[in-house]
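retry 2 of 3: previous attempt timed out while embedding zinc ion. Reduced batch size to 1 and resubmitted. Inputs unchanged:
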Amino acid sequence: MPFQRLNDDILDIILTHAADFAVVLAATLTHKRWHAAYTHHKAGIDRRVLVRVMGPRRIAAALCSIRTKAWVGPCREFTIPGQPAVEEIINRDFRECHMDLRISDAEFPILLEYARVCHQLELEYSRWSEDRPTQRARSPAERDAFQLSVYRLWRFSLFCSDDCVFQDASNDDLFSDPGFRAKIFYAAYTAQEIHNLHAIIDWMREVIGRYGSAGSMSSHTIRMCCIVGGPQTVLNIIKTPHKCRTILEAVRGLVYADRQGCAGDPRFIYEARNLLATTAAVNAIPASVDRRIITPHLYEPLCWKCLAGPGVPLFNHNNWENSPLDIRIDDSLPNWLQGNLKYNDGERRAFLQYLGIPDANTPSYKRVKGIPTIRGMTVARMFQALCCLNPRAQSVRDADTVAPGPDEFHGLTRNSLLCHECLGRLVQARLWLFWWRVKEAHSEGEARKANCWFGYLCDQQFAYHAANFNHVCRPTWEERMARGRGA
Ligand SMILES: [Zn+2]
Ligand SMILES: [Zn+2]
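retry 2 succeeded.
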């Protein structure tokens, strides 16, 4: 049947079967009849699409958080005489498996908002996973585990956030006790589900560390902020990383309830449920718990240099551009030069001239003689050059300038995976050497200058001394002294 002859009810039904909201939106943009059908029945279509996209398990998890909050929020007394304790009521009446899946009009907008936040976090999570060169797509089980964990985090957050009964000063100790957390929250979940939730909280803490400056906050406090503030707080930081500190400081609730940021909770539960002996290794996991559900990187390779991992983001030529390292091809690049070289104005200027970058500190300067300007330097090209660089001496002059023998990155190739720290060490170890080779190759004047005995560590890198001695070299003072003493 041609599209024009389909009646409105059929369009309506088709829209409610869209795979997700993006499809609904796309349809409304393609034809005015789709648009009209959607605007006339928006509420109904939204609800049906959301229910199908989420599926019963995730809806139950989200509704459980929403309903627990609605019930616990106004309840300011922990125990009401003659009534069961709050924890008993929560465990009896607010369990995912017992949730009535009918969504009330008041609950729907909250559910929609939870789904939106969860979706955005999941996008970020998959981007994060793609940064790891695994090329491994996440399975539906992993996606399910991720989303369930996010919906459950709202519920966990409720028990320690500002508007919960356990925030009451006289009750502070309640949430601080892992036994109480076990009773009020963990009792409803399997060991696997608890593992998944904490793996996601660990990821959130890591993301915050990567995106924003949290000031002097410890990683345990940041972890606790993820729990107290909940998924929305984490998303806010991802969206506005420059406000990271303000957002974290604004998190109200039991931020200091646990010194480990609740990181020890899974272990506590494993032992309490006799899944793990108290003598098991610190980060042991019960045999029944599958790490892979949410930590596919377990099977990833380790850092080439320090063997860090698994679970640590690694970088090679496939993703250098995405490295979180603060390395940019602008006038901040000379700051990566070794020792005091970064304070040497002459070297700085010549290096920036080579890269074709205007120096904000000295906007009008004369060109440094002999140093050319290359075009199109990128972060990836810089890493490529550092990887390929041979750190051994290439000439007699070199022998006095570079360290003897192979350096700590000897054998590294563009395929070698490095963690964040080691990537930074590579730049520290080789950027000055790279710069030395450029000078040596292009400027006879520079290559002829005698090496300062204190090399890049010299603290007199200015004026006459800096103009007459090369400082892009290793310190040889001690070596010379030893030779002088006839050693
Ligand atoms: Zn490493
Ligand atoms: Zn010097």
